Amino acid sequence: MSGALLRAEGVVAGYRPDSPILHGVSAEVGRGEVVTIIGPNGAGKSTLVKAIAGLVAVSDGSIRLAGNEIANTPAHRLPARGVAYVPQTDNVFGTLTVHENLRLGAAPLPRRAAARRFDAAYAAFPVLGERRDRKAHVLSGGQRQMLALARALVPEPELILLDEPTAGLAPRVAAEVLALVRGLAARGVAVLMVEQNARAALGVSDRGYVLVEGRNRLEGRAAEIAANADLGAVFLGRRPPVRRPAPRAGAG
Amino acid sequence: MFLQHVADGILSGAIISLGAIGLTLTMRILRFANFAHSELLTWGAYSALVFVGFFMAMDEALGGPIGPLSFGWALVAAAVLAGGLTAAVALLLDRVVFARLRGHAGHMTLVFASFGVALLVRNVILMGFGPDPFYYSNELQIAVRVGAVRVMPDQIFVLGLTAVLVVLLHLFMTRSRTGVHMRAVAENPSLARTSGVDVDAIVRWTWVIGATGAAVAGVLYGLTVQLRPELGFSLILPLFAAAILGGTGSLYGAVIGGLVVGLSENLSVMVIPSGYKPAVPFLLILAILYFRPQGLFGEPR
Hints:
heterodimer, A: 252 residues, alpha/beta, Rossmann fold, 10 strands, disordered C terminus, B: 301 residues, mainly alpha, ABC transporter involved in vitamin B12 uptake, BtuC, two-stranded antiparallel sheet, 2% strand
């Protein structure tokens, strides 16, 4: 993957400099590729996407986007550089209307460019167009996830970071969201996704990484990872009976 | 008599509303109860007094009353400058005090820091101007009868200006990009930041809008009552009552809250001794926190 759009190498990151959560994690995502990160709770999956999104300080290693270093770029500058991030929870502005949520997505754009992008967003997500002036907090879980995706796509990012996009969704809706994610890649967007629902996520992914305790444990083609029975037992959500789930304390 | 109290209540309510709008915005976006906010009213009122003196010294005619009003163009221009100066002071206070604490100090630390800032501002004004009251103008005004109530032309001006400012602010918050970003930061700063909003710039906008509103409210209070160094201090409770009543972060809530506080203060004197009037906002705060803690227009959290 020498032509990877995103290349993270040896990333050390955490909320406190003296106790990093990531101990040198590497990952790559190419254009048009869906890459899923899996691993047990507390492995640092969310921390990795937050570090790329500029929300967690990177104390060592590098994060390059198309060859340019973006580690520790202030989070609000990243959308203008082509990086979009959709957090796991609270990923829409509930007190704002659907349209105002999309206006937030246009924050990095010059004012004139925004209107055309809104039309494109409503064309891609007709369900949002029908609810343009409704407050986002009245939307269903699936509609919220669509709105969060639509908002993130308004600036036409090159890389989109998704933190558990199917969390809390009914299986049918989760499948719809994952199909949308696959569709993004078909348009050339690079997708880096964290998922608890590993089998379903790997089903739409090209490649996967397994993180354990803040370190790379395994990487490979999505189908190979999904087919590995041992991994199924340890990392795909079916925990062996003797192991207690690690606490979720912010590191998820 | 009842209608007269209603008229007076709406007037003082309008001034409280203007002050409370800034307070509710800063509470929501900066995420602490800023007890120094009411001192910005005092600062605005006194800086307008200085600017009025300055304009009058340049040209006596600028002080001449506009129509039936008690004040002249000197005060209008002075209020505009006072708004700018108060915004600058608020930004300075943020830079040297609040910004240093934001992020790593607890919420209560910011609250106590704001108490300190309030004391400082109040006493600087007391040192500069002394404890005696000032007036913008010594012109006599003739009250006009509107039905059963007597109102001063200045009071009608205050109501009209407040209404215009509230409408302008509403348009700003719903139409402009910065206004929508402010509401987004109020709800979820982290999501706003990752969407590309410069939260620090929004914080500065919040101070500018809050401080300008406070300065205008202070000038209007000075115009319809008088200027005293404890002008803002005496309004702390009404301002907080209005903001909490309306629901923290709600513009319209602050406006309605201000009117409710002004009306209940003025109507209370019909049933309780006027010495207890300052206790009315307290009772309102207690009542609203008991029955509807998120305020009239607040989102339940």
